[in-house]
Amino acid sequence: MKKVRVGLIFGGKSAEHAVSLNSAAAIYQHLDKERYEPFLIYINRAGEWCLTDHTHFKEEEYKKEKFRSFLPWSTEWAGTLDADIYFPILHGPNGEDGRIQGLFELAGKPFVGAGSFSSQLAMDKVVAKMLFAQAGLKQAPFLYFTENNHEYIGELVDKKLSFPVFIKPCSLGSSVGIRKAMDKKGLLAAADIAFGYDNKIIIEKAIDMRELEISVMGNDKIMLSSPGELMPSHEFYDYADKYLDGNTQFRIPVSLDDEVEALVKKTAQKAYRTLFLNGFARVDLFLVKKSNEVLINEVNTIPGFTTISMFPKLWQLQGITFGQLLDRLIEYGFDYSAQRKENVDEGLGD
Ligand SMILES: Nc1ncnc2c1ncn2[C@@H]1O[C@H](COP(=O)(O)OP(=O)(O)O)[C@@H](O)[C@H]1O
Ligand SMILES: [Mg+2]
């Protein structure tokens, strides 16, 4: 049988560059080499691409490679980047946000994970929250702003939310630019920070909650794992806790009342459908401590994918190994591509 040529794309112009290297290393290691012929496309922090044979997955080492523009009309690439299917394992902006997915769609090439439109919906916290509200999903009360007008922000937050609040750039990830504010002064300082990263920010009421995550995958038919829980070592799951000096504890899986677990699954499934997702995602939720209500927080379309990451670990508990998970995701990618309707004319031409 002819092997499937898989173009693994990793690194990327994002704060999660280093995580992507680790995710890619794990995926490369677990791809069944009898079935697949993986090849590596590394993107550096400047957004330049290189084709590499090196499987060390170390940023320092990749710096020695020759980088080029990825533009399809750059003839230097001729033939070399061609894959049967692409596997972008890029977290955050410029990877998880639909841009690269749009490139594959434009080229008519199969790829693993959510399509470009759904990826964009999931990445924009404001749009995702509006859709979740429309779908009747519960979430933290929020406001959004497209202008850093202190007077207006202060007034509206006073009127509509109560402190403490969370202030976030709209489309980032990794908790970059996110602050918790206890009062108006903190709020306005945090707004300045968030506007430094994005021209749209979201402000949410802080919820006293437990943080749950659940893995979902599939196209028309979807599968859900059992939920896991994370317990940040900082005041919230901030950038430092995620990547620098954090000591986050995980419960994989977490034992919850049957009713709560059923609600978590129902909420996650609805969130996945609401964003018209395909492929796979990790859905993050809040379990409100006082009321046991389940709130949707966000959907990550390319979650951390290292051997110790929540997403693959939750599947392992369902009896799906890392390698089998990759087989499924690749199959979903081919199926999704086969189902995509091309925009053709009505057949009246000839
Ligand atoms: N409304 C909220 N109430 C309490 N904690 C929150 C709230 N929003 C975010 N957090 C905390 O901040 C972290 C990062 O926020 P999140 O919206 O998940 O951003 P990112 O996309 O960067 O991961 C969450 O994991 C959680 O610990
Ligand atoms: Mg998050």
Describe this structure in words.
There is one protein chain. The chain is an alpha+beta fold. The protein folds into three domains: 4-112, Rossmann fold (3-Layer(aba) Sandwich); 141-205, Dna Ligase, domain 1, CATH 3.30.1490; 209-338, D-amino Acid Aminotransferase, Chain A, domain 1 (2-Layer Sandwich). The chain is 33% helix and 22% strand. It contains eleven helices and 14 strands. It has helices at 17-30, 59-62, 99-107, 116-123, 125-134, 150-160, 184-195, 239-244, 258-274, 310-316, 322-339, and strands at residues 4-11, 36-43, 49-52, 85-89, 142-145, 165-169, 179-181, 201-205, 209-218, 222-224, 228-231, 249-251, 280-288, 294-300. The strands form three sheets. Strands 9, 10, 11, 12, 13 and 14 form a six-stranded antiparallel beta sheet that branches. A four-stranded mixed beta sheet has the order 3-2-1-4, sandwiched between helices. Strands 5-8-6-7 form a four-stranded antiparallel beta sheet, covered by helices on one side. A hairpin with a 5-residue loop joins β13 (280-288) and β14. α3 (99-107) packs antiparallel against α4 (116-123) and α6 (150-160) crosses α7. The longest helix has 18 residues, at 322-339. It is globular. It starts with a strand and ends in an 11-residue tail after the last helix. The model has no long low-confidence stretch (mean pLDDT 93). Residues 284, 298 line the site of magnesium ion (MG). Magnesium ion binds next to loops.
